[in-house]
Amino acid sequence: MTTESAPAPHSARATAARRPAPSVHAPRRTAARRPPVRSHRLSARRERPTALLLADATAAVVTLALAPALLWPTAPWPAASAVPLLLLQGVLHTWRGLYRHRLSPSALAELPALLGLATLQWYALTAAFAARDAHYGVMLAAPALAAGGQALLACAGRAAVHHARRRSAARRPRSALVVGRGPVAQQVTATLYAHPEYGMRPVGQVDPDELGGPVQTALPVLVGPAEVSRAVIQNAVGHAVFTRPPGTGPESAALLRLFARHGCRVWLVDGTPAEHGTPRGAPGGDHLWGFPVRPLDAARRPSALAGKRAMDVCLAAVALVVAAPVLAVCALAVRLFDGPGVIFRQERIGLDGRPFVLLKFRTISPVDEHESATRWSVAADRRMSVVGSLLRRTSLDELPQLWNVLRGDMSLVGPRPERPYFVARFSHVHPGYQARHRMPAGITGLAQIHGLRGDTSIEERARFDNHYIDTWSLWQDVCILVRTAASVLRLGGS
């Protein structure tokens, strides 16, 4: 580990980076006096969207209390309808991303989304009332006025919440690691020192490629997973700021897994100049003092994983019930035409590199376990019967994997799992392949709906899979499932 000083750029506050940085090798008794687990829990409570939910609910309740007297002065107001309306608002705002953690939130920037969703809510409410009773009929512009009032109230409440959070973050910033080398890493470090309202206090710089040599920084330079893990634990690190896209090698994949294991928020700062005509910036316009920034750990947060898991269980259970007759016909056809052994079991690698047993309808009988584990493609194998070929072309051989989804081995959408032999081989040959295991394996994925299935480019598959993980959302999962259903109807199996 080395510690060298460098001039901090363009800010009086930024020169604080030249002071001795907090040591990442704190004595054991010091670490014992401030347990990192407690720090993580306290921070997690501060970052929950409770305050924003309360601000939105307050705006909706106030509007619901005032608007009916203007919209329906002669009709009784059914107060019980407020509950489903608030639930609908919570679902819509979550879907729109209004409760995501941002480094630079802006209530004015959120106003168009608040207005659009409030308009949708109020027109749906008035339409439902008018369908039930003609006394609730109103002028077409009336719900828009109510929606505008609700959106303004919500905007004001959110502005107060954002202001309070910035003040709280400046008073109690969390330790952060800057991952990367070069000018961008120096500028990001100086920015975090100069602007504590982002809630980050740099305590170390990670050299992801373990290049060694002199690095122009006043922070301790961490090389290797052992040093990074020790720094994260001893300093209760809550944020990791990448200054270039990760996933370019096994070192970056190991870092991402390490940060996810310790509950750190992971951010990617884009410090490269935009080319002419090329849009840049993160979805939603989040930034770190002018640097476009986006979260890289969105798919690994407990709330996100819980939502994804809930959708998987519900859809897989329904699909198994609906597809039960098809499963029975497929199993009977395999048994009659190909003999005993309807279900084919094979070890695959899933989330965080953990192995599991994948289930499929048997379409061919391998000679031995070695062939099953190391043969890449059997699509053109002459031993495959007509039934096996039909199952593969229609992707019906994948239906038993719905049971893997229910068991928690897989997800409906995610990177396709591969056998251990090929995971080890591809991880050494193709950059970023190991980073695919940041998410649960899936029956289908972004790579598959773009035609990358069967004997296609592994490098392109890894690129699509990592892009899916970096930009994950439940809505993206829904879109991929819809496109998968369309491709299955075109008989595009592997």
From TrEMBL:
Pfam families: Bac_transf. Signal peptide: none annotated. Residues 1-23 have a biased composition (Low complexity). Keywords: Membrane, Transferase, Transmembrane, Transmembrane helix. Coiled coil: none annotated. It is found in: Membrane. InterPro entries: Bact_transf, EPS_sugar_tfrase. Residues 1-44 are annotated as: Disordered. Residues 26-43 have a biased composition (Basic residues). Its main location: membrane. PANTHER family: COLANIC BIOSYNTHESIS UDP-GLUCOSE LIPID CARRIER TRANSFERASE, UNDECAPRENYL-PHOSPHATE N-ACETYLGALACTOSAMINYL 1-PHOSPHATE TRANSFERASE-RELATED. Belongs to the bacterial sugar transferase family. This is Exopolysaccharide biosynthesis polyprenyl glycosylphosphotransferase. It comes from Streptomyces kurssanovii. The lineage of its organism: Bacteria, Bacillati, Actinomycetota, Actinomycetes, Kitasatosporales.
